[in-house]
Design goal:
There is one protein chain. This protein has 314 residues and is of the alpha/beta class. It has one domain: Metallo-dependent phosphatases (Purple Acid Phosphatase, chain A, domain 2). It is built from seven helices and 14 strands. The chain has a six-stranded mixed beta sheet with strand order 1-14-13-2-3-4. The chain has a six-stranded mixed beta sheet with strand order 5-6-7-10-12-11, with helices on one face. Strands 8-9 form a two-stranded antiparallel sheet. Helix 2 packs parallel to helix 3. It is globular and about 50 Å long.
Length: 314
């Protein structure tokens, strides 16, 4: 299967130069995937193909980060969640993930109850709402921010994302780079002809950015959700936000994953686009077998909501 690698950007971190000069001058790499939206056959195929390619990369990968929307509102559907778990587990490198707004869902009827039920289901299948991988080169943190980025979402019992994040960053040596990963970017989105805030709770955003600014070794915020590339700098002097493209086919998006490289104080990234199977190929819901009926919508009893339509608000 052919792939296309597109160089995107290079970002210089002056503070990181000092770290590299202390004896860690060798390049290191990590990978980001986002918005896999499992529950649709094509998305399953794309996800499996990406994992196969990532495992075959000709260089070491320090960490693979999934920045959310693992499923399309199907975390309560055991078959969908289990398949997504198995695919992610097949990644050979150390890995972390955080949930997105289609994993921990605050919408539809009785949104508060749904929010708590999906949070519990997410934890059952994918683990804690905050996860870390630390190497000799960097600390990678994935954290759920759904309960602080929305005004209307309730707090999650036993998990305060800001308190948890402060404690984890505080453990890290001052000179070691930290990459903080979450689902919804902490910057505006441009949609429907205008800029719109991605976080609806200004106080939550203020506290989030203040925390990041207190820790100068946080080099970047990595996110997904927009289903396209985006880069944003902030007037607070804190770390920039780098948004990766998606796996989901909604809005005619092509699947891709992102490879980051840190070398000589520079963070650069490339997007690897995955070529889909021929249009007349039918794929089973596990993303493997050929089945003409594979892309038919699942019954309502099996999945929380339709998986075949593009989700509103990403």
């Amino acid at each position: 299967m052919k792939t296309k690698i597109v160089p995107i950007a290079v970002l210089l971190f002056p503070a990181l130069c000092a770290v590299c000069a202390t004896g860690r001058a060798d390049a290191f790499r990590f990978v980001q995937i986002s918005d896999t939206h499992q529950g649709r056959a094509l998305h399953q195929w794309r996800y499996r193909e990406a994992v196969r390619q990532i495992n075959a990369l000709p260089f070491a990968v320090e960490c693979v980060i999934h920045t959310g929307d693992v499923v399309s509102n199907g975390v309560n559907s055991p078959d969908v969640a289990q398949r997504a778990k198995e695919i992610f587990s097949a990644i050979n490198a150390p890995k972390i993930m955080c949930p997105g707004n289609h994993d921990i869902v605050f919408q539809y009827s009785d949104p508060t109850n749904r929010f708590f039920r999906t949070a519990a289901a997410y934890r059952e299948f994918f683990g804690p709402l905050g996860q870390t991988v630390e190497t000799s080169n960097a600390l990678y943190i994935a954290v759920c921010t759904e309960c602080i980025r929305r005004k209307d979402a309730p707090a999650i019992p036993g998990f305060d994302p800001l308190e948890w994040l402060e404690e984890r960053i505080g453990r890290c040596p001052a000179g070691k780079p930290v990459f903080v990963c979450t689902h919804v970017p902490d910057c505006d989105d441009y949609a429907d002809g205008e800029f719109k805030p991605a976080w609806s709770d200004p106080d939550g955003l203020r506290r989030w950015r203040a925390l990041l600014c207190r820790h100068p070794n946080v080099r970047a915020v990595l996110a997904g959700h927009f289903h396209r590339n985006c880069y944003a700098e902030h007037g607070d002097g804190g770390p920039p936000t780098i948004v990766a493209p998606c796996f989901a086919s909604f809005w005619q998006r092509q699947a891709s994953y992102r490879i980051f490289t840190v070398e000589d104080g520079r963070l650069s990234w490339q997007d690897v686009y995955i070529e889909d199977p021929p249009p007349d190929t039918h794929i089973s819901r596990d993303g493997i077998a050929i089945d003409a009926a594979a892309d038919a919508p699942q019954p309502a009893a099996a999945v929380d909501t339709s998986l075949e339509a593009a989700p509103s608000g990403r």
